[in-house]
Specification:
There is one protein chain. By secondary structure, this protein is an alpha/beta fold. It folds into two domains: 3-15 and 25-317, 4-Layer Sandwich (Purple Acid Phosphatase, chain A, domain 2); 324-524, 5'-Nucleotidase, C-terminal domain (5'-nucleotidase,  domain 2). The protein has 15 helices and 26 strands. The longest helix is centred in the N-terminal third of the chain and has 18 residues, at 3-20. It is globular and about 75 Å long.
């Protein structure tokens, strides 16, 4: 028997039990859908089924990162004439509470303000602060009352590392406070003011710090702080989290000796995270059962009404994506970029050089990475959709002032960070060799500028790169060069006010026929 089908049989029996026990509560979380609502038919079927079985006893939560990830989500963000795809999807069920993700902020304040205003449910996030008032920009927490007087508090928090990825122009007037300190502050407020029976965290922050994160004593704290908060901030009964795309269902004991249930459904609706609170009673510690529910029931049943709502968004996006852009003379692959110069990256370099030159800014050097692994484009006419494959993110463009020594250190770090591939930047505008067998710090030998003039370690150069990298993303500027996060802004010479993919498409349209040879700026010895 298909394991998903078996799971659904068991789940149906459990739900029938819950429905017959009015003192039970069920929580379901989705997170990091990244606009893939065209793939959400089976999930939608399950959620509607749960709603019909459990009724008000079901609390449906979404944990953010919905406004970026697909061409038709991008198109919806640019289209103010129709409700946004995200609000349309979440309102359909409807969800009970929605959290905020970093890629939602990346869509820009104009977009996320509109999307959240269209939603029927509260949007919670306590540590995004309106600088004009000093108060949370979003609702910090909500109280849901179930079974008359049983109070459920749901507190939203977002990783403050948004400030290292998203330019100020997309988040004007907003300040992002440390997640760990905010959790401690708001749990105390909720306990003293609300006296809830259950406290639930809705965190867009991963499980624990990675090697490439900033030091834990940094003012921003940990990018991925969920485990730390669960262990060190008493008060939470359940924490749902997202951001790192890694499914998890776990019970841990905090410093007060209490058990905390921690769940992450993963990304793109592949799973649903479920917590069932059995026989809830005021003043008593709840019994909580947690599990990860695979999406789909083995019979591929889908919610046709939900997919019908999504279809117009796909149709409008398809018309946009099918527009011809430019001729590609030869096939290109992102995988080639790991072994030496490749057109996949070098056309991005060419675009970056020429785009900033058109803005009256001269760039001496360009840095760029292949942003996806194992992607390829066949020779022929490229359409808009191909550029979503070539450049999947909504980064903008920036020019940084860097010394020759800093350029070398940047490339040393980039070569060390070949995995994940989106951290593997190469340079253009210079000629250099890589000694693959040497340790980090001694691999990169810069021979000259690309035109043959000397490269000077002490000279300051204008270096063009995407905004994610220019703000410290990947830590090339921090761990590679040694800049402090708060000093990065002082090195910014110029920033674009449009996303790089749109600039890439316009550059290719004007060019007409793209190049057939890479720039050959570097090689492995």
């Amino acid at each position: 028997m298909n394991i998903k089908y078996f799971f659904m049989i068991a789940l149906t029996a459990l739900l029938a039990s819950c429905a017959s026990k009015p003192k039970d509560l069920m929580f379901i979380e989705t997170t990091d859908t990244h606009g893939r609502y065209d793939e959400f038919g089976m999930e939608a079927y399950i959620l509607k089924d749960l709603k019909s079985l459990a009724g008000e006893n079901l609390i449906l939560l979404d944990n953010g990162d919905n406004m970026q990830g697909t061409p038709f989500q991008y198109c919806s963000n640019q289209d103010a004439a129709h409700p946004n795809l995200v609000s349309e999807a979440l309102n359909y069920f409807p969800y009970d509470v929605v959290g905020v993700g970093n890629h939602d902020i990346e869509a820009g304040r104009k977009v996320f303000d509109r999307v959240y205003s269209e939603m029927k449910m509260p949007v919670v996030c306590a540590n995004v602060i309106d600088e004009a008032t000093g108060e949370p920009y979003f609702t910090p927490y909500v109280i849901l009352k179930r079974h008359k007087n049983y109070k459920v508090a749901i507190l939203g928090l977002l990783t403050p590392y948004v400030v290292t990825w998203v330019p100020d122009r997309l988040r004007p007037g907003l300040r992002f406070e440390q997640l760990e300190a905010s959790a401690e502050k708001w749990v105390k407020i909720i306990q003293e003011k609300e006296h809830p029976d259950l406290i639930v965290g809705l965190f867009h922050s991963g499980w624990e710090p990675m090697v490439q994160n900033l030091p834990e004593d940094h003012p921003l704290g940990r990018e991925n702080a969920t485990k730390w908060v669960a262990e060190n901030v008493p008060g939470f009964d359940i924490i749902f989290y997202g951001h790192d795309h890694r499914p998890r269902v776990e019970k841990i004991v905090n410093i007060a000796g209490d058990t905390v249930c921690v769940l992450n459904s993963g990304d793109r609706g592949k799973n649903l995270a479920m917590a069932i609170v059995r026989d809830v009673k005021k003043g008593q510690k709840p019994q909580i059962y947690i599990s990860l529910m695979p999406a789909g029931d083995g019979n591929n049943r889908v919610d046709s009404a939900f997919l019908d709502k999504v279809q117009p968004y796909k149709d409008r996006a398809e018309a946009y994506q099918n527009q011809d852009v430019a001729q590609l003379p030869v096939s290109v692959s992102s995988s080639e970029a790991l072994n030496g110069p490749s057109l996949w990256v070098d056309e991005i370099h060419r675009c970056q050089f020429e785009t900033v030159e058109a803005e009256g800014i001269h760039a001496d050097i360009s840095m760029a990475a292949p942003l996806s692994s194992s992607k390829s484009l066949e020779s022929g006419v490229l359409k808009v959709s191909d550029f979503f494959t070539w450049y999947p993110f909504e980064n903008s463009l920036a020019v940084m002032a860097m010394t020759g020594k800093e350029v070398k250190d940047f490339l040393e770090y980039a070569y060390e960070m070949k995995s994940p591939i989106y951290n593997f930047d190469s340079g253009a505008g210079i000629l250099y060799e890589v000694n693959d067998k040497s340790p980090m710090g001694k691999r990169i030998h810069i021979l000259s500028m690309a035109d043959g003039t000397p490269f000077d370690m002490d000279k300051t150069y204008n270096v063009v790169m995407n905004s994610y990298r220019s703000m410290g993303g990947g830590n090339h500027l921090i761990n590679g060069i040694g800049w402090a996060q708060e000093d990065i802004k002082s090195h910014v010479v110029w920033q674009s006010d449009r996303d790089l993919r749109s600039l890439f498409i316009e550059w290719a349209q004007k060019k007409g026929v793209l190049d057939s040879e890479p720039l050959n700026c570097w090689k492995v010895k």
